[in-house]
Amino acid sequence: MGRIYTLVNQKGGVGKTTTAINLGAYLARFGQRVLIVDVDPQANATSSLGVDKHTVKGGVYETMLDDAKATPFILLNTRLKLSLLPSSPSLAGAEVELVNELGRESRLKNALNPISEQYDYVLIDCPPSLGLLAINGFMAAKDGIIIPVQCEYLALEGISELTRTIQRVRVALFPGLKVRGVVMTMFDSRTHLAADVVAEVRKFFSGQVFESVIPRNIRLAEAPSYGLPISSYAPGSNGAQAYEALAREVLMGDGISNPKLQE
């Protein structure tokens, strides 16, 4: 059965979707079978892979609310060798619709369990909130959560809230929930503040912060508008090199030694 990681941070604009897409793309480049699951009603992961959310015929909403099987809605990008379970505008109402549903916190987990063995990695991109959709992401993260943290002072303020939510989920729903790692994003080497934030986060999440740090990079910002991950849009950029290093670090941490890029 493949590994399932959920990318989560209640603060928006921290590079969560960027990390999901680009980490997934490089894991695929390393020969892994990867599925991106877009649980954000804004559908940014979906559009970042060149899929128009308004033309999606089904996806996460149907699997969570209608108990539909996920397989018919999974889109395979043959060029990227990357699969996507898309989001759509209909997911915006899911928070309200799930409230009275039986087992509402585990809908996503139950939808992914039957297909997870088809993939080496399932990466779940959650919305920037701590509502029911994010809770579903926590519950589905059988191998842990990945937390992108922006290298700015205000990002530190949200960490304590996030850790309290993680603890509440552990106590009430999922005692085995663990942090797989923290990814420092949007690092600006020209400022002392960025380095200070990295140091503080490393102290807060001792031993859980990835060594790979994602720089602030214009190519990373441009790539989604072309519907491409950075590995295809600008493979020689600093951002691409950072995500390649992150993917390699994830693989080696998961016991896959000396991973090699594939064409």
What keywords describe this structure?
alpha/beta; Rossmann fold; eight-stranded mixed beta sheet; 8 strands; 17% strand
What is the element layout, followed by pairings?
Blueprint: E1 3-7, H1 16-29, E2 34-38, H2 44-48, H3 60-65, E3 75-77, E4 82-85, H4 94-98, H5 107-112, E5 121-125, H6 132-140, E6 145-150, H7 153-172, E7 179-187, H8 192-204, E8 209-215, H9 218-222, H10 230-233, H11 238-253
Parallel strand pairs: 1-5, 1-6, 2-4, 2-5, 6-7, 7-8
Antiparallel strand pairs: 3-4
Helix pairs in contact: 1-11
User: In CATH, what is the class?
Assistant: Alpha Beta
Question: SSE order, as H and E?
Answer: EHEHHEEHHEHEHEHEHHH
Query: How would you sum up the major sheet?
Result: 8 strands, mixed
The CATH superfamily appears as P-loop containing nucleotide triphosphate hydrolases
What structural class do you assign from the helix and strand content? alpha/beta
Q: What percentage of the residues does DSSP assign to strands (E)? A: 15-25%
Distance between the termini: 25 Å
Adjacency order of strands in the biggest sheet = 3-4-2-5-1-6-7-8
Q: What is the 3D shape?
A: globular
Low-confidence stretches: none
Question: How many strand units?
Answer: 8
CATH-defined architecture: 3-Layer(aba) Sandwich
- The helix fraction, in percent, is 25-40%
CATH topology: Rossmann fold
Rg computed from alpha carbons, rounded to a whole number of angstroms: 17 Å
Number of domains: 1
Count, helices: 11
Average pLDDT, all residues: 93
